[in-house]
Sequence to fold (484 residues):
Amino acid sequence: MTVELLPPIVSSLKPSNHPYLNGAWTPLMQEVDATDLKVIEGAIPTDIDGVYLRNTENQVHQPLGRFHPFDGDAMIHQIEFKGGHANYRNRFVRTRCFQAEQEAGGSLWGGLADPVTTALRPGYGAHGALKDNSSTDIVVHAGKAFSTFYQCGEGYRLDPLTLETLGVEGWVPIDGVSAHARVDEATGEMMFFNYSKSAPYMHYGVVDRDNRLTTYIPIPLPGPRLPHDMAFTEHYSILNDLPVFWDAELLKRNIHAVRLHEGVASRFAIVPRHGGVIRWFEAAPTYVLHWLNAYEEGDEIVLDGYFQEDPMPRPHKGAPAGFEHMMAYLDEHSFRSKLHRWRFNLTDGTTTEEHLDERIMEFGMINQRFAGRKYRYAFSTVSQPGWFLFTGFVKTDLETRKSTEYLLPPGRYASEAPFAPRIGGVAEDDGYLVSFITDENTGTSECVLLDARDIAAGPVCRIALPHKLCSGTHSCWADRAQLG
Ligand SMILES: [Fe+2]
Fold:
C-alpha cells in the first residue's frame, strides 16, 4: 500500500466529552490517496468493478453551540475495486459553507440543537439557519456523484473517481434538494423532493439520464413537514406526510421543536413519475426515516420501509448527562424501527400494512437493479442499543420471510452496506455487501466484503484502510459502467 497525504485542512475542533465526537465517531481531518490496499484476510474478488462511496458527518470546527452529529461536514470515503485490487481515497466536499469556514478558521453556523440566533451568517435548507454541509447522502447519477443534505441543501456534484468537488448542481430549485434522491438504473432518471416552511411545503422532481430537469411539481401539504426519504415504482413516485414535524406554534417564534402529533394519520402521495393526478392514502401514524423499495403489483403499490413503533422516544436514561434527548433520537432501539410493508390499492383507495420482521433494523439496501421492481431480498443493518453504531447485517428473504444475519465482534462498527452486483451475476443476491469497519479495539479501519448469498458465513475479504474512519451515514455502490 502506498499512501499520499494531501495538504492539511484548517480545523478548530477541540477535545470534548461529546459521545458523537469520540470513539467510532471521532472526526478525521486527514485526506489521503492510497493505492494497492493490503488484504488482511481472504482475497479481493476479481468479479466486481466499481466504487463504494460513503458520506460522513465529519465535524471540522469547534461548534458554536451544542453539537449534533447531523451537523458535521461532508467527507466522502471511496474504495475502488478492479481486477482483484483496491484503492482508497477520501475528500471533504468543498461546499460553499466548508470553504467559508476554512477561510474564517472556525464555525459560522449553529446546528440542529441550537437556536437560530447561533448562526453568524444566513443559513440554508428548510430550517433556514443551518450550514448546508451536504453530508447526509450520496448517489451516482448521470456519471457523477451527487451529495445531499437532509434539510434540503444545494446538492453538490463530485467526480466519483477523483472525488474532486465539481460544484453546486445547476438544476437544483430554490427550495433545494433533500437527501435520498433516488436513481432508477433502468431509465437513468433520478427522482427527488424538497420541503420548506412556505406553501405548498413540498415539491417533487425528476432529472433525466442526461441531467436535465424534466419534471418539477408541487406536492401541497397542510403545513411544514419533515420527510426524510422517498420511494418509486416503475410508473409512480411515493412521497410522505408523516405526523412527526415541527410544532406549529413554536415555529411562529422560529423555534424548531419536532414532536409527534397525536391522532394524526400517516399520509402517502402516489404521484405519476412525470406528474399528473396525485392520489393520497392514509395509514397508521409513524415516522419512517428510510424506505427500502417499492413496486407495482396488480392494483396495488407495495411500499417497504422501516416503521418506527415509538417515533417520539423518551430521553435515554443511560446516556451521558445532557445528551439523553439527542441519544434517544439516534437509537433504533429507542424509536424501534421494524421492516414494514404498506399496500396502497389504486382501485378501492384502501391501505393495508404489516410488519415483515419483528427485529429492530434500519438502513436497508437492495440490489439497485431491482429498485422500483418486485424484489426478494432486503439487507438491513442492526445497531448497538443506545447508539447510532451499526453492529451487523440482516438479510431478509421477503418471499419466505426467513432471515439470516452476520454480527460483528464487540468493538467493531460497520457502515451502511450497499449491494455490489457480481460481474455477470443474474440472480438478485449474486454479489457482495461492501462496508467500512471501524475497530475501536485496534483504532483502525478496514473494508469488508460479504457474499450476499450467504452473509452468515462472514467476510470473504478484509482490506486494511490507511486511517481510522469516523462513523458515517449513507453510501452507494456504482459499477464502473455508471461512472462518467
Ligand atoms: Fe437518511
Summary: Residues 136, 179-180, 228, 289-290, 474 surround fe (ii) ion (CB under 6 Å). The chain has a mean pLDDT of 97. Residues 38 and 71 are 33 Å apart (CA to CA).
